[in-house]
Write a structure and sequence with these properties.
Blueprint (H helix, E strand, L loop, with lengths): L1 H22 L4 E11 L4 E12 L5 H4 L7 H10 L1 E10 L4 H4 L9 E8 L6 H16 L11 E2 L20 E6 L6 H9 L15 H4 L4 E12 L7 E14 L8 E2 H5 L12 E7 L8 E5 L4 E7 L2 E9 H4 L8 E6 L11 E8 L5 E10 L5 E9 L3 E3 L5 E4 L2 E2 L4 E5 L8 E9 L3 E11 L15 E3 L3 E6 L26 E6 L3 E3 L7 H26 L11 H14 L1 H5 L1
Parallel strand pairs: 1-10
Antiparallel strand pairs: 1-2, 2-8, 3-4, 3-7, 4-6, 5-6, 7-8, 9-14, 10-13, 11-14, 12-13, 15-16, 16-23, 17-22, 17-25, 18-23, 19-20, 19-23, 21-22, 24-27, 25-26
Bound molecules: 2-acetamido-2-deoxy-beta-D-glucopyranose (5 copies).
The site of one 2-acetamido-2-deoxy-beta-D-glucopyranose has 6 residues, from strand 12.
Length: 572
């Protein structure tokens, strides 16, 4: 009897668990997409996007039980009451002039910014907690983010998600760590956040050996709140995990590329949890820059008209194509690349430092507008506290002619407490090169503040240039109301938001001669070592006179003994 009782209890428990898991409706979805674009410069860019949408209000009781959404991230969002979070880990520089615009902009190094809920009172404390938690989640050194390298820019960032109240930038924090780079140890935790991990689906293509030898690679995590219905009475949480790669395809003679060549392996199947699992190839440069055939033939070819630009896109549904096993897409060129005129992107920028010596310098940012209209841009300069800049030295010129900025927002840095924050709104005239420059002094730090390789120099984070482009030429970004790459097809809008990031700059600050103490130590040690032996020898040994008594009789006896008994006695 007790046995059967136990069985019924177990059975009923199982039934309860089973029915629970079936009835509890998680109401979430996952999409995986890969967008490949052969660039006019001969490079090939590949952009992975994994989108998880979770239709729940952002409240603790819902966030505790996740299904497709990574629980580790859900807990962090809940704990720190975040409305929006953007992290990117990037190696390499996106070349806007020759590659156009990426789907997601990211500056070299690590960049993070977050919008905290308006109920968060002590934003700085939550920011510190958030970056520490994320550094554990992503194995990145985000714990180096503190108030000395964080700021709340007034114009450059707007919440990308829905907001019930007008936003207040006091809830925003932005920071960049230009020295942090992405590597394998960041990729593994990134893949762990995906519902299928790296077991199945497009994420199986993310092999570190084929990612870290690209010209540019960027890993991004973007969380925001979006409207759950058209009236926007309910919100959902959207998580976009992105990886952008740029391969140099010019080193090969025949320029052919394939999924197997780019990622080291073919695709075995789609993630079973994914609703949409697609590969898109932008074939617009076929017949102008290259001529190639795709094998196998795409399942569908769609035309996207966006902001006056026509794009032809080949679509492969991974679910269909992997039915018969391993699958790879190959582009076979019938003619080698023709050197055509590469029209540069309409807005681009670069930054450098002029001056010599280790005391003073001048920071120069050049903004290029190739459009026939004037474009208003927001320029955010993020200058670390150890480079003191002088506001009165700002010069904005175009062919020796001064340009007045429309708005200047500045807050001076404080040593070890806050960076210099400078934000300007500048109107760039049509077809122009505008030069912004500011003078700065290099500070002499305390000796403990230098990193172990002090003579390597210090990195300065990228400047951010934000603009609304009037046309979508070379633009691949998603519209603000879209979650998947599919939503960017035919998405014509009045303006196209771009945020360009400039180069990070390596500055050699005045460095004390760290080799001096080292030399002194070496010299002193050598002298001590040389002196120690004889001194020790002399001071520990007693000098005794040794008297050797030998007369001629003894010598003879010894000699005879030696003759008679051989060597043995001689030794005795
Ligand atoms: C930008 O787009 C134009 C027209 O679509 C194209 O001719 C040009 O090569 C593109 N430039 C870049 C840098 O992608
Ligand atoms: C933004 O928040 C800060 C601090 O909470 C407050 O002082 C400021 O008035 C707010 N600004 C607006 C426009 O609401
Ligand atoms: C590229 O153009 C050639 C010639 O017009 C055509 O045969 C080929 O199918 C095109 N390739 C793609 C991928 O559309
Ligand atoms: C985009 O619009 C064009 C013209 O209206 C249409 O032919 C095309 O099918 C649309 N593409 C998509 C993906 O909806
Ligand atoms: C120490 O002294 C002895 C003789 O007193 C000498 O043979 C030996 O080489 C000395 N050792 C050193 C390290 O100077």
């Amino acid at each position: 009897m007790p046995n059967s009782n136990k069985l019924t209890i177990i059975a009923s428990l199982l039934i309860i668990i089973f029915t629970n898991s079936v009835t509890s409706n998680y109401d979430d979805s996952f999409n995986e997409e890969l967008f490949i674009k052969p660039l006019p410069s001969g490079h090939v860019s590949a952009h992975f996007q994994f989108t998880t949408i979770w239709n729940i209000p952002k409240e603790t009781k819902y966030l505790e039980h996740s299904h497709l959404f990574p629980r580790g991230l859900a807990v962090i969002i809940d704990r720190h009451n975040i409305d929006e979070l953007h992290i990117s880990l990037t190696e390499g520089l996106w070349r806007y002039k020759t590659w156009g615009y990426p789907v997601v902009d990211a500056g070299p190094g690590t960049e993070i910014y977050a919008w905290f809920n308006e109920n968060v009172k002590n934003v700085d404390q939550e920011w510190k907690g958030l970056t520490n938690a994320l550094s554990g989640l992503l194995c990145a050194s985000l714990n180096f983010v503190d108030s000395a390298n964080s700021m709340s820019p007034a114009f450059s960032f707007r919440p990308l998600g829905v907001n019930s109240k007008p936003y207040n930038t006091s809830q925003l924090r932005y920071s960049s760590l230009p020295r942090e780079i992405v590597c394998t140890e960041n990729l593994t935790p990134f893949k762990k956040l995906l519902p299928c991990d790296s077991k199945k689906g497009l994420s199986t293509l993310l092999n570190s050996a084929y990612i870290h030898n690209t010209n540019y690679h960027s890993v991004g995590i973007h969380v925001r709140l979006i409207c759950a219905n058209s009236a926007c009475t309910k919100t959902s949480i959207e998580l976009k995990q992105t990886i952008t790669l740029v391969y140099d395809n010019m080193i090969d003679y025949n320029q052919d590329w394939s999924i197997r060549k780019l990622f080291g392996m073919g695709l075995q199947g789609s993630c079973p949890l994914a609703t949409l699992s697609n590969i898109y190839i932008d074939t617009s440069t076929n017949n102008t820059v290259h001529i190639y055939q795709l094998t196998p033939k795409p399942g569908d070819v769609i035309v996207s008209l966006r902001g006056g630009q026509r794009h032809e896109i080949a679509v492969y549904d991974v679910k269909k194509f992997t039915k018969n096993g391993l699958f790879s897409i190959t582009a076979v060129h019938s003619k080698s690349r023709t050197t055509s005129i590469n029209y540069p992107a309409i807005l681009s920028a670069n930054r450098y430092v002029v001056g010599f010596g280790q005391e003073k310098g001048s920071l120069v940012t050049k903004l290029y507008n190739n459009h026939w209209q004037a474009i208003d841009v927001v320029l955010l300069e993020n200058i670390p506290w150890y480079l003191s800049v002088y506001l009165h030295t700002i010069k904005i010129t175009r062919n020796e002619e001064n340009i007045e900025p429309l708005v200047v927002k500045y807050s001076p840095g404080k040593e070890r407490l806050q960076p210099y924050y400078l934000e300007l709104i500048i109107r760039l005239p049509a077809h122009s090169v505008t030069k912004f420059s500011i003078e700065m002094d290099y500070l002499f730090l305390k000796w403990q503040e230098y990193p172990p390789d002090a003579n390597h120099g210090f990195y300065m984070g990228p400047a951010i240039i934000t603009a609304y482009l009037p046309i979508a030429r070379n633009y691949t970004g998603l519209p603000i109301d879209g979650s998947t790459i599919t939503s960017s097809f035919n998405a014509s809008r009045p303006g196209y938001l771009v945020q360009l990031r400039t180069e990070t700059i390596l500055i050699s600050l005045p460095t004390p001669d760290f080799s001096m103490p080292y030399n002194v130590i070496c010299l002193a040690c050598t002298a001590v070592a040389l002196a120690f032996g004889p001194l020790h020898n002399i001071s520990t040994k007693r000098l005794v006179l040794k008297i050797i008594k030998t007369d001629w009789k003894g010598k003879i006896i010894l000699a005879i003994k030696a003759k008679l008994f051989g060597d043995k006695t001689k030794q005795d």
